[in-house]
Specification:
By secondary structure, the protein is an alpha+beta fold. It is built from 9 helices and 8 strands. The strands form 2 sheets. It has a 6-stranded antiparallel beta sheet with strand order 3-8-4-5-6-7. A two-stranded antiparallel sheet has the order 1-2. α4 crosses α6.
Length: 226
């Protein structure tokens, strides 16, 4: 379905990745010829284009269509978790089924009924209602002794590694959680951090979490002698 291609391109681009046919094939678990045929149709319909480096880009029309799909998905996720009590993984799966059946008008009414949330349960912004934070960085970029507050979990983790999403949820690594880096093992590429308890993550996993670094207090200036 073309909607799934638009959504995938939107997510991959949002994570700062280059979008290519092979990446889409892996993301959607389809063959490369299938992706090629879909992209040909989407190009004809004015949804995507290829730049000189053969990278896939959304056109303005495609960007609007993709943002609408993502908006419906994230609003439905909020409803499923906040109102119906579904877990993160189940909510993401169910939202993917419902996002194309829901009209934009109903999605907006649902958004208002939920109290106008700014993000999905995993902290990713709802298009049209919020944007990415400018001061975000990957958890893997923090150094030993630094602290930060988790803001969101990468869509890549959600779509490509649902067990990882559940792992993070079960350990309390969710938006709003403050973490402190205890130790960074450069050889084993692991990060030991403290949230509610002491945890060890691989650098690869830590890179799928975004945080806002906690500002360190400035040292007080010594008063001048009188």
């Amino acid at each position: 379905m073309i909607a799934h291609y638009l959504e995938a391109i939107y997510y991959i681009r949002a994570e700062g990745e280059v979008v290519r046919s092979a990446r889409l094939a892996d993301w959607l678990s389809v063959s490369r010829p299938t992706v090629t045929a879909a992209l040909r149709r989407m190009t004809r319909d004015g949804m995507v284009r290829l730049n000189r480096r053969k990278e896939i880009e959304l056109t303005p029309r495609g960007d609007v269509a993709a943002a609408a799909i993502v908006r419906r998905h994230r609003i439905v996720e909020r409803w499923l978790t906040d109102t119906l009590g579904l877990d993160w993984v189940s909510a993401d799966t169910e939202a993917e089924r419902l996002e194309t059946a829901l009209s934009d008008a109903v999605a907006e009414k649902l958004h208002r009924a939920l109290g106008r949330p700014q993000t999905c349960p995993h902290g990713n912004p709802i298009p049209g209602h919020s944007t990415m934070r400018a001061n975000e960085l990957r958890l893997s970029a923090l150094r030993a002794g630094e602290s930060g507050t988790i803001t969101r979990i990468s869509e890549v983790a959600q779509r490509e590694a649902p067990p990882l999403l559940q792992y993070l949820h079960d350990r309390g690594l969710k938006p709003g959680t403050r973490v402190t880096i205890q130790e960074v093992d450069e050889i084993g590429r692991t990060i030991q951090l403290r949230a509610a308890r002491l945890l060890t993550l691989s650098s690869e996993t830590a890179a799928k979490l975004s945080v806002v670094r906690t500002a360190r207090p400035r040292p007080e200036r010594a008063s001048a002698p009188r």
